[in-house]
Structure to design on (449 residues):
């Protein structure tokens, strides 16, 4: 049984998959999706086209860490959904990103607006 | 089976069997859908191969995504092993160059008996170690391939044939190279004949690519054409065929032997590397190049005598420090 991540540090262990993981979890926050639907949704809302290898590399990590889980399906295209741990990890990650974005935008508006 | 299915199947082979058993079916569906959207996409192919190679590497190191601490420990050991591999290659090359006569003999001069003896010893020991390591990894693959592989596995014959041909070409080259005497820095052929001689030739053929010509490329022009092709093509063909066989029979080496022992082993490796560097520097300082000697240490080169060897020592120091960093990480995580 994978150990559930504690809030704020769960993305540390995702290494090179941290970026794709944020996109995948954000997409799954809307509801379960299979691989092809995930790539299309991410391309639509983030303008990022995840390669199939990168997508499944990240899905494997996220599933092993208990942040997502596969939904039983008779279809060969297996959907995935967010777990409670995954939702908490995504919330913490997005909050951290928002803090960085706010600080950056505030500093930009203070120092560079007049140029 | 359609051409898309065949393409998907080929791409899936980059991934380890355990991964394919879990994700293979749905991954194949995604690939087929993306190929239908965009039939030719080099970026997609590279992405699939890159991640597949990463998965195989992770499997080889016993990567466990549920235990990131263990994962990092094995990555630290990978750093140590990689540093050691490059270090051994460079160190053996430098040591054989220094000890086999490049400082004490000219190409046209008479062979130096001591240099010839040391040359044979270094080459034979290197070849034997390399051969054993090679066989340890590849033998299993070849045996499986010859038996037809696992149920449903096909296509082993081609790579096995290429591997056998490449090894054969290297063996013939060893025999041929001995007759033309181009590879011995001291300018001497092997003394003696007989079964031991034939065995040594075979081994020398296998390590023929470890030649001073790589640091003195004009030597390549003096090689007979067949030997030149063999030294340039056969090793690449052998490695590629061996890699293909390993991929087909789905075997990966597992170098780790547990966190605690890994840390001890890593520090022993770093100590040995540091000791070699110290010994090499002392040897170079005590043996200045002779007038007219060749290759790395030749007087009149743009690089002053000994500077090339010292540059190699510098690289060895960097590799030792890199391995040390890996060893410290392994100790922290043990």
């Amino acid at each position: 049984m994978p150990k559930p991540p504690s809030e704020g540090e769960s993305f540390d262990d995702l290494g090179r998959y941290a970026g794709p993981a944020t996109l995948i979890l954000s997409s799954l926050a809307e509801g379960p999706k299979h691989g092809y639907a995930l790539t299309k949704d991410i391309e639509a809302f983030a303008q990022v086209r995840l390669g199939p290898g990168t997508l499944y590399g990240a899905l494997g990590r996220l599933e092993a860490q208990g942040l997502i889980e596969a939904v039983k399906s008779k279809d060969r295209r297996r959907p995935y959904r967010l777990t409670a741990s995954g939702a908490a990890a995504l919330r913490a990650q997005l909050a951290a990103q928002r803090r960085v974005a706010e600080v950056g935008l505030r500093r930009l508006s203070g120092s560079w607006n007049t140029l | 089976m359609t051409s898309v299915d065949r393409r998907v199947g080929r791409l899936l082979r980059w991934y380890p069997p355990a991964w394919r058993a879990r994700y293979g079916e749905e991954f194949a569906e995604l690939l087929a859908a993306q190929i239908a959207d965009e039939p030719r996409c080099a970026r997609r192919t590279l992405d699939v191969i890159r991640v597949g190679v990463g998965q195989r590497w992770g499997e080889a190191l016993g990567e466990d995504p549920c235990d990131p601490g263990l994962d990092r420990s094995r990555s630290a050991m990978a750093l140590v092993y990689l540093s050691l591999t490059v270090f051994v290659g460079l160190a053996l090359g430098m040591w054989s160059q220094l000890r086999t006569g490049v400082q004490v003999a000219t190409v046209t001069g008479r062979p130096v008996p001591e240099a010839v003896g040391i040359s044979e010893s270094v080459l034979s020991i290197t070849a034997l170690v390399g051969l054993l390591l090679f066989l340890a990894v590849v033998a299993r693959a070849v045996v499986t391939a010859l038996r037809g592989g696992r149920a449903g596995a096909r296509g082993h014959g081609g790579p096995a044939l290429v591997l056998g041909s490449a090894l054969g070409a290297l063996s013939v080259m060893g025999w041929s190279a001995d007759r033309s005497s181009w590879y011995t820095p001291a300018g001497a052929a092997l003394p003696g004949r007989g079964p031991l001689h034939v065995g040594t030739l075979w081994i020398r053929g296998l390590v023929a690519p470890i030649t001073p010509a790589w640091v003195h490329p004009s030597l390549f022009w003096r090689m007979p054409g067949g030997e030149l092709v063999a030294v340039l093509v056969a090793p690449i063909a052998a490695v590629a065929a061996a890699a293909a066989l390993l991929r087909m029979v789905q075997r990966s080496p597992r170098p780790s032997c547990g966190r605690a022992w890994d840390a001890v082993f890593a520090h022993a490796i770093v100590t040995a590397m540091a000791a070699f560097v110290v010994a090499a520097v002392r040897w170079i300082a005590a043996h200045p190049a002779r007038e007219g000697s060749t290759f790395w240490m030749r007087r009149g080169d743009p690089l002053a005598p000994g500077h090339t060897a010292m540059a190699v020592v510098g690289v060895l120091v960097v590799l030792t420090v890199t391995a040390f960093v890996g060893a410290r990480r392994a100790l922290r995580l043990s």
